[in-house]
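Protein 1 of 2
SEQ + STRUCT:
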Amino acid sequence: MNPGNWSQVTEFIILGFPHLQGVQAYLFLLLLLIYLTTVLGNLLIFLLVCLDSRLHTPMYRFISILSFLELGYTAATIPKMLWNLLSEKKTISFSGCLLQIYFFHSLGATECYLLTAMAYDRYLAICQPLRYPTRMTPALCVKIAIGCWLGGLAGPVAEISLVSRLPFCGPNCIQHIFCDFPPVLSLACTDTSVNVLVDFVINSCKILATFLLVFSSYVQIICTVLRIPSAAGKRKAVSTCASHLTVVLIFYGSILFMYVRLKKSYSLDHDRALAVVYSVLTPFLNPFIYSLRNKDIKEAVRRQLKRTGILE
């Protein structure tokens, strides 16, 4: 196409789930319930750790940071998804789309780094218990947390910069449930092979590297647990890792298939389903995973309820 004939797209239409048009109201209610539960659950864990001094340990500080992170992670996409389910005009401006991509990917990258830090914390606690208090100090926790946030926020800058320079001359329908790099790149009216390659390299380094670090941590944890002589000791060690490992498997299991690939190899519905897993279900499940089987969290809830006079 002749560049002189380009008419720059100023907004995109997010199609969402086009095959489910007849149940939009029910999807809205379901998604709204999930979102409210996600916000309340993660906010509860964050406040519990802040208010209860017995939870001021590295493990729970990381969990509280993860809960706070999930509040922003879901806010980047779900409110707009809710609006689109009720609105006939499912549009988003070009700059709004880039902002949504930036915050979704930067907070997603921060979660990758944070889950890696949590795996390292569990490795030190189980594999080097005598050195753990002197290694994982409050000062180190703060430095790790800051590093996770800075690394995450800087992560998608190069990709966003490249996408912002692309010409978009139509069509402008995004075949996804929110703005993301792959569906937006498919709408550009020029060659995007450089963008795809940069996206693949950054995602591979970010996702695969952190996943391999988490994996190696758990290999060493498992080897250490198997050498524990008592069954009670093994159960205690496993209980401290089970919640984190569950979150890692759900989160990485979906983003690996979505972002670490050079060419599109799955259907649009497959991509939408994966997006629901890592953008909606994982943040929704986190509070339940970290609280339902966690005695410390349950006891902290009881202490706070007694302090407020709700429980005697």
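Protein 2 of 2
SEQ + STRUCT:
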Amino acid sequence: MDKTTTVLSSLLFLFTFLTISLSKDLCNQNDKNTLLKIKKSLNNPYHLASWHPETDCCSWYCLECGDATVNHRVIALTIFSGHISGQIPPEVGDLPYLETLVFRKLSNLTGQIQPTIAKLKNLKYLRLSWTNLTGPIPDFIGQLKNLEFLELSFNDLSGSIPSSLSTLPNIMALELSRNKLTGSIPESFGSFPGKVPDLRLSHNQLSGPIPKSLGNLDFNRIDFSRNKLEGDASMLFGANKTTWSIDLSRNMFNFDISKVEIPKSLGILDLNHNGITGNIPVQWTEPPLQFFNVSYNKLCGHIPTGGKLQTFDSYSYFHNKCLCGAPLEICK
């Protein structure tokens, strides 16, 4: 065999080896079988047309496989904005390496939050939003100890907020807004075991007072707007906190703000449409406010000058009891 033939043979072997290697199905067979069941359960939608049994599932749309350290198991299932109807398939619980699960902007997705999700002990990111899911927020979510982000917004969920959510040691954001949740904010939300999460509970039917225990926490963002909450919310504030955004608008809060100091880091403060009384403290001129609204309350006195307070127009202040000074009328 001459030298040229040897080189060609070697190149042919290398090409064949690479072709076989590149065409190797990385997808775990158990995961593939589970995914095909999920597709069938969702009535084989066009959105999942790439899910073909003869192809590598790691190349399928809406999926992500992990690297070799987890044997290329499926770690993310993200189904978003497709023409999909039905309920969340129970087979999602049979993807044991799943870290991300998303069903979002699927208006024909109905039923309750699938109980088999409780089996996904590696789950870090759970987003079930902009659907027609109904029923309660299940208590089992508190068992997902690796969960870092939970979004259940823009659904038709009802019932109370389970206190078990406060036991999640790694949670960084709880987004439960725009549902039909009732009852009070759990007392246990004043004692998250890890980092204090962003807490967004707006556009529900929550009622009663805010637990005093929440005053012990230094939130980054709080949104309790458009509920039926009442009483004192002053414990959420404090000059030494590092909070960036507080929205308590359109509730029934009733407390005196005259001696309330707000975080020096605060960028967003919305208190409109409540029953808040007192004078706006001079200390409120110190934070770098970018949005501010205290309209439709029972505030009185002179609006302090300086800082950012005069950069907001009269709509941020009007419909109060006797508030005056720029940008409102001059105090008499």
